[in-house]
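Annotated sample (chain length 389).
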Amino acid sequence: MRERLTEAARAFAPLLVEWRQYLHAHPEVSFEEYQTTEWLAARLDAWSIPYTRPTPTGLVGVIEGSRPGRTIAVRADIDALPITEETGLACASTRPGVMHACGHDGHTAILLGLARFLAEHRDFPGRVKLLFQPAEEKAPGGAKAFVEAGVLDDVAVCIGLHLMSDIPIGQAGIREGALMANSDAFTARIQGQGGHGASPHQTIDAVMVACNAVVNLQTIVGRKVDPIQPAVVTVGAIHAGTAFNIIADSAELKGTLRSFDSQVRQQLQDEVQRTLEATCAMYGAKAEITWNMGYPALVNHPEITAVLRAAAEEVLGPDQVYEPRPTMGGEDFAYYARKVPSAFLWVGARNPAVGAEWEHHHPKFTIDEASLPIGMEILGVATLQLLSE
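Output written by the structure step:
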């Protein structure tokens, strides 16, 4: 079975590229992946793989092995981003303002390849659930909806991967424990009192209050959070004012909080709330703060991590698999990891020779498509190992 998997990954390479390029040319944003889901359903129908649709977009296929055993889930995210593509590729997006700028087209192609292989070689115990999940890019996220729909209720283990533009092709990264961060967002509306730019004493300048609030927020991590604990407070947007001679009566701040520890996560929220309210009160303004609780931290299970690492080492060689530092990026695979023992792998897709050197979410982002059979084989090796345990 193992040898057949290697042969299939190599033989399927042109198909994986074809599928990835089709998906790349036809991207759909989070929660709107209707045509993508129909296209995936047609592939599964052709391979006699039954599936359900636990949410309006996205689907879950099931492949039964030849004998009893436990259920393993393998996940791929299918959504794209609201970005105008600038790659110039022949398979560039045909939909203005929408682009696969994070590699999800590759993830989907990889899972399709594994699905076809398992459908054609069912000499394994148990069964495999194929999670073609929508909306990784937009909270509350498709993973949360899948979990709430009961997709993992009969699942023993879940695994997944992400193609990475900062890891060279032929390498992979995985670590036990926290890999990706809690990811929360806030919007703060500051209400002051507008007036003429020449008479600031008769106003409560919302721009000035907002600027002071941003500065004060930057003291939270340095003076309130245990320095041993990673944390980030970022204000990414300020909107205020209409003209050079009008003092704005209101301003809006948008920001994000990142952490790994649940107590630090709550502390950051409390401190942001307190800091914004106190800063506004000092100048006579008012603050209205709304929260968008994002994805929890992604924590890899030790035993499943070991299996996924061993699979990557078997495919790439021990010297090509390393333990990366955790990242403050968010990932809704975390919801699966909170439900069942799970692990998430990073697979290298960087190769400047083919233009695969831009960061995720960049208009010129692309991948080295040689990463597709690598990802398929690693997930396949890990799946077969987990099914046999």
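Annotation: The CA atoms of residues 11 and 373 lie 9 Å apart.
Annotation: The chain has a mean pLDDT of 97.
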